[in-house]
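All the exercises in this workshop are built on plain-text protein records. The record below serves as our worked example for the rest of this section.
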Amino acid sequence: MKKLVLTLLAGAMLLASVNLKAQDSKGGVNGFKFGIGLEGALPSGGLKVYDAGAGLTLRFSQGIAENFDATLTSGGMAFFPKSFSGANTNTKASIFIPIKLGGRYMFSENFYGMAEAGMTIAKTYTVKSFNGTTPTYGFVSSSSFTYAPSIGARFGGFDIGVRYEGLDGGGFMGLRLGYDF
């Protein structure tokens, strides 16, 4: 929990301190922006025990130079295992909570590249013990380093991005459909 609080605090301080000379295409100053997005994920590597993932993310951005924003992204994603039935299934579901800092560079008015890095907290709902025929479930928590290169497009307030998000032992291809306020 201390890592989460310190990471969020560092990200907020970074975004608050970078209110520099960012300009929009009309010569005005780009300020602080907030966005919300729906997420979809196709697991790979060590996450192949899951069929898919879905969730919601929040993204904060602050222009720090022409065509460049600092970003802070967090939210929650649920990953669904390939099989829910049977007493031998020891993983039911996982919730991933990413906390990523990064930068977004606008190649043109609409298209961008972005790189983010940070930490993901994973909470896995799993069998903790098995007493005869009745399993006992509970959460197991872990955290790992996360990196996420992505490309995307922005049209007005709408944002669509595709990324690979790498974690310790696995990763996933992600699609984000968002709106910036």
User: Anything to note?
Assistant: The beta strands are 32-45, 50-65, 68-81, 91-106, 111-131, 134-155, 158-167, 170-180.
